[in-house]
Amino acid sequence: METLNINQIQRILIHRYPFLLVDKVIDLEPGKKGTGIKNVTINEGFFSGHFPEEPIMPGVLIIEAMAQVAAIVVGSEAAGKVSDPRRSLTLRETKPEERMGYLAGIKEIKFKRPVRPGDQLEISVELIQKLANLFRVKGEARVDEEICAQGELVFTKGK
To answer: What residues make up the domain containing 140?
Structure first.
């Protein structure tokens, strides 16, 4: 089991503020599965319009957070042991298009509970199929062990 801090995450993902939706990874098996954390605060820009009187995190951003954790799982396998302090992990030596993942499909995503400011979103994904540069993952997002969203994502990696 490996953990990643935000600096290590930023070496894998190309996302940045305001679209980096993973604050830390608490459990990682490179190329297999992982669990990430998103600390949701009222300072998130999307809350100003979704919805000002009753702020909830848009479901599409929960899906994006799942996709980012999946990209960490897949990207960390390519990089080798991420948390090895002797190694200066950087996928930035590769071209951005080689690290870029593209969401290709969403299957049976179900939203079961709203995510609100102050919640800590725990996002778990597991790789269930890989065909060349096509990946299928099962994802689940929880707050206080209660499922908020679950389903499958399909994405491609590279050009």
So the answer is: 2-157
